[in-house]
């Protein structure tokens, strides 16, 4: 066209570019651009060729009009563009030639394939067609069956979820019926010596109200609303009156650190909250990654719970004085069992420590030891612990807690090795913890059991002790929470037998060897003889009104008491935990969310710094603990966080400038 109009592109100055096998673009330098798509590569090439030829014709017409003077002279820029267009056209012609050669080559191959196909026998072709038809029909039939099966499985899952709670209730009915038909006595916390053969939970622990619990679907995200809807119901706290004011309950909390250790904490409020409403969406998941309201917690952190292992530190004091390494091993085994005694009624979970959170317990003057814990990892959660005693022993451990909710029960698996070293002899003992199970998550009274096997190894002498925690069984008349053990020398010969329960006591019996008639040596275990019995450990009674104070032991009651001079990262200073201890649970939930969000922001900042360092090629540690460092143990060959020193020196100087701001 010799004139322009809206919606057209002058071919003489158009740019034609190929985008891919079917798409090409025509533009005039920005004002107009057409994106065109052909049905195939051959069709695209036909269009491009036709347009290029038309463009060449337009350029020629433009040149002729310039010579006759009918049109304006072409500027130097237009001439340059014309030359570029001619070069592009030449390139396109070469591409067209190449495409022509390819078409000819593939056309020849296609003709050859068709010729070969014609030479095939007709029955073979028919057989292939019939086989394909049969396969298609079979696939369609099975596809419908699979769809039906999938829908059936979905329906079954829905029905299973709907009936799960009812099954749990029926299960509890059967448990109570069985307990009613058999004699399985259970003692309450206040009557520890009433019976040796105790079973928990007892028949009296399960009320009819447990079967009338109403369950509601929990929201997908477990963020706490402004008001949990906490409602005071009839008090089930024995010895406590609903008329007691909060000030009277909490008056013992803020006491001077110079005074005696506190013997009580504010009573646990009687807030009603359905555990199942939160836990039903957590089946099979790692609970450390799921935010939980403080309503399921006790006002202690995991670091403080770890420190509770030292409640019976005198067992290690006695072990340090033993001349025989085998006798020493007996006391170490009793210490191992004693660390579980505080868990028997403690069904609430501790607070997950924030990264960098610490907890110190300085009992050097009263008991001869001091202890330090630090949260060294957040995911997976891991805490390092170091305790040393002037009585000649050091205890250290790094524990990672992993937990899974299995529907009716919760499994807690501590991972990591515990080390105990005695300075005088150099005896180095190591062991691992057993699995803790919390039962009756859906309905009924929560109760805890310990199960598994512990091997305590003396790396210096190769002597060892095997402890077996027998899981509770409804159909066993054996003593509940039973623990048995054998102390063996380096040759595997048994010298002592241990017997007891992890919630009450452990006894030790010496084993003597006698000769059989055939002359071979055998082991005769005389643990039934009272003259060889030695009481290694017995649990301390719980404080008065412990059932109102989360079943805390005397040591646990003191752990969250405010002390002067501690690090700013100490668990005692954690605000949500303090609010929860004071009974202000709604405020504690809001504060817990604030702390967790602050921790997430810190983690994202470290990750951004690590990414920047990686791009710049500079080394960067994502996170490094403040008071512990990773080292390889020469005996176990395991790499774990070991105390590197400096904390108590910083406390003496009151120099906490290196501590992070986590609260």
From TrEMBL:
<feature type="region of interest" description="Disordered">
    <location>
        <begin position="188"/>
        <end position="212"/>
    </location>
</feature>
<comment type="similarity">
    <text>Belongs to the OSBP family.</text>
</comment>
<feature type="region of interest" description="Disordered">
    <location>
        <begin position="566"/>
        <end position="593"/>
    </location>
</feature>
<keyword id="KW-0175">Coiled coil</keyword>
<keyword id="KW-0446">Lipid-binding</keyword>
<dbReference type="Pfam" id="PF01237">
    <property type="entry name" value="Oxysterol_BP"/>
</dbReference>
<feature type="compositionally biased region" description="Basic and acidic residues">
    <location>
        <begin position="571"/>
        <end position="593"/>
    </location>
</feature>
<keyword id="KW-0813">Transport</keyword>
<feature type="domain" description="PH">
    <location>
        <begin position="1"/>
        <end position="56"/>
    </location>
</feature>
<feature type="region of interest" description="Disordered">
    <location>
        <begin position="224"/>
        <end position="243"/>
    </location>
</feature>
<dbReference type="InterPro" id="IPR011993">
    <property type="entry name" value="PH-like_dom_sf"/>
</dbReference>
<keyword id="KW-0597">Phosphoprotein</keyword>
<dbReference type="InterPro" id="IPR018494">
    <property type="entry name" value="Oxysterol-bd_CS"/>
</dbReference>
<feature type="compositionally biased region" description="Polar residues">
    <location>
        <begin position="234"/>
        <end position="243"/>
    </location>
</feature>
<protein>
    <recommendedName>
        <fullName>Oxysterol-binding protein</fullName>
    </recommendedName>
</protein>
<feature type="coiled-coil region">
    <location>
        <begin position="150"/>
        <end position="177"/>
    </location>
</feature>
<dbReference type="InterPro" id="IPR037239">
    <property type="entry name" value="OSBP_sf"/>
</dbReference>
<dbReference type="InterPro" id="IPR001849">
    <property type="entry name" value="PH_domain"/>
</dbReference>
<keyword id="KW-0445">Lipid transport</keyword>
<dbReference type="InterPro" id="IPR000648">
    <property type="entry name" value="Oxysterol-bd"/>
</dbReference>
């Amino acid at each position: 066209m010799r004139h322009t109009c809206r919606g057209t592109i002058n071919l003489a100055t158009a740019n034609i570019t190929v985008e891919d096998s079917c798409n090409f673009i025509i533009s005039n330098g920005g004002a107009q651009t057409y994106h065109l798509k052909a049905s195939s590569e051959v069709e695209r090439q036909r269009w491009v060729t036709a347009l290029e030829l038309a463009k060449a014709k337009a350029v020629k017409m433009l040149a002729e009009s310039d010579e006759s003077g009918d049109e304006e002279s072409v500027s130097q820029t237009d001439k340059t563009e014309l030359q570029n267009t001619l070069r592009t056209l030449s390139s396109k012609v070469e591409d067209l030639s190449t495409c022509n050669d390819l078409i000819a080559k593939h056309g020849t191959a296609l003709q050859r394939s068709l010729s070969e196909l014609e030479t095939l026998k007709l029955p073979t072709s028919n057989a292939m067609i019939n086989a394909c038809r049969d396969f298609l029909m079979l696939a369609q039939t099975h596809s419908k069956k699979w769809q039906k099966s999938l829908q059936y499985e979905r329906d079954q899952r829905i029905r299973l979820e709907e009936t799960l709670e009812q099954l749990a209730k029926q299960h509890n009915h059967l448990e109570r019926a069985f307990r009613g038909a058999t004699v399985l006595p259970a003692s309450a916390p206040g009557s520890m010596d009433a019976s040796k053969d105790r079973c928990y939970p007892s028949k009296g622990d399960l009320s009819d109200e447990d079967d009338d619990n109403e369950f509601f679907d929990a929201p997908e995200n477990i963020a706490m609303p402004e008001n949990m809807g906490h409602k005071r119901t009839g008090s089930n706290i024995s010895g406590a009156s609903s008329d007691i004011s909060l000030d009277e309950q909490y008056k013992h909390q803020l006491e001077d650190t110079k005074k005696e250790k506190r013997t009580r904490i504010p009573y646990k409020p009687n807030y009603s909250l359905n555990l199942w409403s939160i836990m039903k969406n957590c089946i099979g998941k790692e609970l450390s990654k799921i935010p939980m309201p403080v309503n399921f917690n006790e006002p202690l952190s995991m670091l403080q719970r770890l420190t509770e292992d030292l409640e019976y530190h005198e067992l290690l004091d006695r072990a340090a004085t033993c001349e025989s390494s085998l006798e020493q091993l007996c006391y170490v085994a009793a210490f191992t069992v004693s660390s579980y005694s505080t868990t028997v009624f403690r069904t609430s979970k501790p607070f997950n420590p924030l990264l960098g959170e610490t907890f110190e317990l300085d009992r050097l003057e009263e008991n001869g030891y001091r202890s330090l814990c630090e949260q060294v990892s957040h995911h997976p959660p891991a805490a390092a612990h170091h305790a040393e005693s002037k009585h000649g022993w050091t205890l250290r451990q790094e524990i990672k807690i992993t937990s899974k909710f299995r529907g009716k029960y919760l499994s807690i698996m501590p991972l990591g090795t515990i080390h105990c070293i005695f300075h005088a002899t150099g005896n180095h003992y190591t062991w691992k913890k057993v699995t803790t199970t919390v039962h009756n998550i859906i309905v009924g009274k929560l109760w805890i059991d310990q199960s598994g096997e512990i091997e305590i190894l003396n790396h210096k002498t190769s002597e060892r002790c095997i402890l077996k925690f027998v899981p509770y069984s409804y159909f066993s008349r054996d003593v509940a929470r039973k623990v048995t053990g054998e102390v063996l020398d380096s040759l595997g010969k048994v010298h002592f037998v241990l017997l007891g329960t992890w919630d009450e006591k452990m006894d030790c019996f010496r084993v003597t060897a006698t000769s059989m008639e055939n002359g071979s040596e055998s082991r005769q275990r005389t643990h039934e003889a009272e003259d060889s019995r030695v009481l290694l450990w017995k649990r301390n009674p719980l404080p008065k009104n412990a059932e109102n104070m989360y079943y805390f032991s005397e040591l646990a009651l003191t752990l969250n008491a405010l002390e002067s001079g501690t690090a700013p990262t100490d668990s005692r200073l954690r605000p949500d935990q303090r609010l929860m201890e004071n009974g202000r649970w709604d405020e504690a939930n809001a504060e817990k969310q604030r702390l967790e969000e602050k921790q997430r922001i810190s983690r994202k900042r470290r990750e951004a710094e690590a990414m920047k360092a990686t791009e710049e090629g500079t080394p960067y540690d994502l996170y490094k603990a403040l008071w512990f460092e990773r080292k390889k143990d020469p005996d176990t060959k395991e790499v774990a966080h070991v105390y590197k020193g400096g904390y108590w020196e910083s406390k003496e100087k009151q120099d906490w400038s290196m501590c992070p701001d986590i609260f």
